[in-house]
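Subject: sequence -> structure tokens, single chain

Hey, anyone have a minute? Need the predicted structure for the following. Not urgent.
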Amino acid sequence: MKARDFAQQLIYKIIDPVVRGMVKIGITPNFITGSGLVLNVVACAVFIYGAVNGERGDFHYVGWAGGIILFAGLFDMMDGQLARIGKMSSRYGALFDSVLDRYSELIVFFGICYYLILQGYFFSSLFAFLALIGSLMVSYIRARAEGLGIECKGGFMQRPERVVITALGAIGCGVFFHLKGDYKIYVDGVKFPVFEPILIFVIPIVFVAVFANITALGRLNHCRRVLTELDKNKNK
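Reply:
Had a minute. Here:
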């Protein structure tokens, strides 16, 4: 079993009692999906508030926003599990979930870009934007492939990984700042610090930016091979 599948099954075992309780009181998957979107809007608002009102080098807001993003990620898992356990699966529900997931990613990365730009980390904000592009393309290529009748679910940087990596980076940045403050490391002859707390947040975003786009290109290549083979068979 892959590490990703093992972690997913472990989380399902933890949240299943909560999900079964939701089924009993009549909570619907679409309500959970909508709640996840609201939480991501709150995370975005925290980033924006921190960008406007926080001082440069104060990363408490980053940490709190990361915690909210991670919590919202649980809702993304619970809606599907709720639909399965409560026998409430529907094609519209699947579409609704996918659409709100895209809105959630757009909103969160907007908040991250806004924070980084206003706090003076413009170069880092470019990686956040690249991460957003990669995230959307991973989902778009899968949707377009399925519209053409082929399955396309592969790749390392899928939505759960993107959410967890981004959230843990933000939380780690906030926790480090709480413990050490705006601690920086300088090297003789170098004008800028070789380490500062924002890197704990930015490096995971760079990781997402690189591997989300690699995942998207990998999916595109998979589709090319499958569709080319289908076209050859069709023309025989």
